[in-house]
Amino acid sequence: MIVLIILKILGISLLSLLGTIVLFILLLLFWPINYRLSGYRREEEPRSRVELKLSWLLKLLRLTYVYPGQAYIKVKLLFFTIYRSDRPAKKRKDNKPGERGEKSAGNKRQTRKAEAKAPKEEKQAGVNHQEKQQAEKKERRVNKIFARFRNIVYTIRRTYDRMKRGWADISAFLGRLSGYVALLNSEEFRKSLALCATQLKRIWKNVRPRKLRAAIRLGTDDPRTTGQILELYSILYPFIGPNVVIYPEFDRQVLGGEGYLRGRITLFILLWAAWIVYKDDNIRKLRMRKDSKDGRQ
Question: For residue 202, which of 270, 277, 261 has the smallest C-alpha distance?
């Protein structure tokens, strides 16, 4: 009976631990991660501030990234800070000054011994310096002639090798280019491109900001450049709406403003989209065709 009770307790404990792990994995996959990005830039002072906040599971786990001139990362669990990058690291202990002095004294003694052992050789008088100089001049002339001949031969050979390699590279490039053109015109590539576009749209719907507000004061030295920026803003206005407002300045150069955006990210959607792309038959066929071409080359 005691053995059965112990086995029962162990089984319940293992099942509880397994259930906790499975529950944590499910929460990590399906519970969204909320993000908030805010910042500002002042006109009167060249100062900017960017702050990124991530929270998960009803703000049980929070991560903050602040860039006020010196960036740091802070991770909090409940009310406890478990990591902060701007905390000073522990200083390592250096060697004691006495040990440094002993090492330097030992090095000096070794240097003196090496100098004492060095033999003092005297210069011996050579044979006639004039005859030696004439022989050296003749040798240098012969060496120059042979060196010029070798350079000419080496230049011709190198030019021929470069032309040969260049033609081989051009032929290989044309072969690869024709293969890539055929690959882009294939049915597998079109289906794979459509699948990737669909999955990217799904990912964008998941990670796109739910709220966006920004007010920007912008001006350049050239009024024409400012006008071109406003023209681009008018093109993007149907997508961003009144959430982003630009106040132009045509008579001075200025860049300032403030804004924020927030949204959420679900890991399961990202992983599921990546899995669909990875297991797609058309993409697998494209990878096989590319690997076979690379193997032949």
Answer: 270
For residues 109 and 117, give the distance between their C-alpha atoms in angstroms, rounded to a whole number: 13
Secondary structure class of 90 (helix, strand, coil) = coil
| Sequence-separated (6 or more) residues with CB below 8 Å from residue 207 | 263, 265, 270
Residue 152 belongs to a domain: yes
pLDDT tens for 148-178 read 878 888 888 888 788 878 887 887 777 777 7
The number of domains in the chain is: 2
Helix, strand and coil percent figures for the chain, each rounded to 5: 60, 20, 20
Domain-embedded: residue 221: yes
**Using one digit for the tens of pLDDT, what is the confidence trace for 238-254?**
888 888 999 888 888 88
Does this model's pTM top 0.85? My answer is no
Structure tokens at 68: 């006020």
Collect contacts of 171-180 with beta carbons under 8 A, ≥24 apart.
172/297, 175/297, 176/293, 176/297, 179/293
